[in-house]
Amino acid sequence: MQQGTFKSARWTEVAGRLEVSASERVAPKAQEVQIAVGSAGICGSDLHSFRGDFDPRVGRTPGHEISGTVSAVPGGVRHVKEGDVVGIEPLLRCGFCRFCMSGDYNICTERGLIGAGVDGGMSEFVNVPANTVYRVPSGVDTEVGALAEPLACSVHGFERVRLKGAETVLIVGAGTIGLTAILAARARGARVIVLARHPHQRDAALKCGANEVIDESEAGKARLEELMSLRAIDVSVETVGGHGDALIQAQRAVRPKGRVLVLGVFTVPTLTIDGRYLSGPEVEIVGSMVYSARDGRSDYQVALEIIADNVEAARSLITHRFSLDDVQTAFETALDKSTKSIKVHLNPS
Known about the structure:
Layout: E1 5-11, E2 18-24, E3 32-41, H1 44-51, E4 65-72, E5 85-88, E6 91-92, H2 98-102, E7 112-113, E8 125-129, E9 133-135, H3 142-145, H4 148-160, E10 168-172, H5 176-187, E11 191-195, H6 199-207, E12 212-214, H7 218-229, E13 235-238, H8 245-253, E14 259-262, E15 284-287, H9 299-309, H10 311-315, E16 318-323, H11 327-335, E17 343-347
Parallel strand pairs: 10-11, 10-13, 11-12, 13-14, 14-15, 16-17
Antiparallel strand pairs: 1-2, 3-4, 3-8, 3-17, 4-5, 5-9, 6-7
Helix pairs in contact: 4-5, 4-9
């Protein structure tokens, strides 16, 4: 492996500020793989840290939506080789607890995240555990490969609510999670309706295969009321998080005996639901935590395969691209929705 320095973005002591600095490039340890990062997406959770909702660790390199090219592999790793284009499933886990052994490593008590517990992908190079590295299917490059991580969240969630092909899904929110959820739901054969606030989100939802997009106009509100009166929504998906305002909307929209899938990341400990739309109509509210490999089925691998079938639709979600040196501008762009950003990517190498 070539030695030398490489550049990484790191959180500073000033809230909402990142800096780019140089570090010594070191060889991957046993059962690690070194990745030359091609693309790293800015996630909503990264923006929570940028805004100050969460406290990032000073000096840590963020970035868990990662794809790149293998640049160094120790002798004990066999499933990838130098030059392979790969995606990174960024969950860290113990590997030995009852949850890890069943494939439910997403709820391991020692669960961590690349980009939070250890340095992440907003860097020219990153060393990651070998078991997090997946070769991408043919036709998938590093740009769309980095979208497998948010897409895998919906793949996992729809498995949790047992989504069937004949059902209708209402997705509340049209950010990255909501839009990639369209791809996951369509892959299962479902009909998809999306609640989108902005015109550019409407356009993106249609490109991803949404059957219908409803906005916040009076006509949009009337259409949602019509769907509710027809009991047309089998599964509603909350993708917004934050203070949880979208959760009660998702709950009220679903038909009796329907399911509500919660994918959003909340910034408050207490949420409001409507008890009248819970026990009486026997509505299920199902929480979902990222992704797993229950019974040997890897949600992340499924996500890569869905992307391979929808490369250009996936690529349409990437609205802004920045170099690593422009990381501060990239975060500001992702935070400012007047830029019409959906997914902002850094391209370190």
